[in-house]
Amino acid sequence: MKKRIAVLASGRGSNFQAVIDAIAAGKVPARCVALITDNPKAYAIERAEKAHIPVRMVDFAAFPTREAYERALLVAMQEARADLYVLAGYMRILGSEVVRAFPGRMMNIHPALLPSFTGLHAQRQAVLHGVKVSGCTVHFVDESLDGGPIILQTCVPVQDDDDEESLADRILEREHECFPEAIRLFCEDRLEIVGRKVRVRK
Ligand code: GRF
């Protein structure tokens, strides 16, 4: 039975596209039932429309308070009735009520090898720090900042002449493989959270 997934994205949505393509290619046993976005200008909206995926707008600017926005987001997510919620470049930190509503059912991709370089501009942080290896991480979302149980990680070597942009481009290529793979494992019921760890069943 195919899982229902909903994607939350705020921007260009290249990871969203990778998920759409992986589903279309039969690599992920899922149906993408919604794009939820907080940004009316997100290019991800065009990608959703092309793929005939319903778009749900929860525009932060349209709400009088953060609480009102959070409530509307929670309702939009519940109405999607997804098995899995995928954060693909969703640029807002989710409140605890939203996070607690979907335990073990929300994933994020982060452009660094967590727990290094949490938060914004992870690729810039990696270049400034002078690390020799960075990469990307797919993890379950909990109430910490980029600190939930890690599902998959992929390494990307940092080259001497890398700047933030060149490193980000190479990490992004790996993200587009890593994210659909993690979603596939979830959709095949092969991920089990044991304490802080994620076990992948054969
Ligand atoms: C990616 O680098 C992802 O790791 C981070 O936000 C970026 C989203 O890019 N969370 P895109 O919108 O999927 O192209």
Main traits of this protein?
202 residues, alpha/beta, 6 helices, binds 5-O-phosphono-beta-D-ribofuranosylamine
Notes on the protein architecture:
With 202 residues, the chain is of the alpha/beta class. The protein has a single domain (3-200), classed as Rossmann fold (3-Layer(aba) Sandwich), CATH 3.40.50.170. Helices cover 35% and strands 25% of the residues. It is built from 6 helices and 9 strands. The protein has helices at residues 14-24, 44-50, 66-80, 96-101, 122-129, 164-187; strands spanning 3-8, 30-37, 55-57, 84-87, 106-110, 133-140, 150-157, 191-194, 197-200. Strands 3-2-1-4-5-6-7 form a 7-stranded mixed beta sheet, with helices on both faces. A two-stranded antiparallel sheet has the order 8-9. Strand 2, helix 2 (44-50) and strand 3 form a beta-alpha-beta unit. It is globular. The two termini are 19 Å apart. The mean pLDDT is 98. 5-O-phosphono-beta-D-ribofuranosylamine is lined by residues 9, 11-16, 88-89, 109-111, 172, 175.
Helix content: 25-40%
SSE series: EHEHEHEHEHEEHEE
Oligomer: single chain
Strand order of the largest sheet: 3-2-1-4-5-6-7
- Provide the residue-averaged pLDDT: 98
CATH level 1 name: Alpha Beta
What best-fitting shape do the alpha-carbon axes yield? Answer: globular
Radius of gyration: 16 Å
In short:
With 202 residues, the protein is α/β, with parallel strands linked by helices. 35% of the residues lie in helices and 25% in strands.
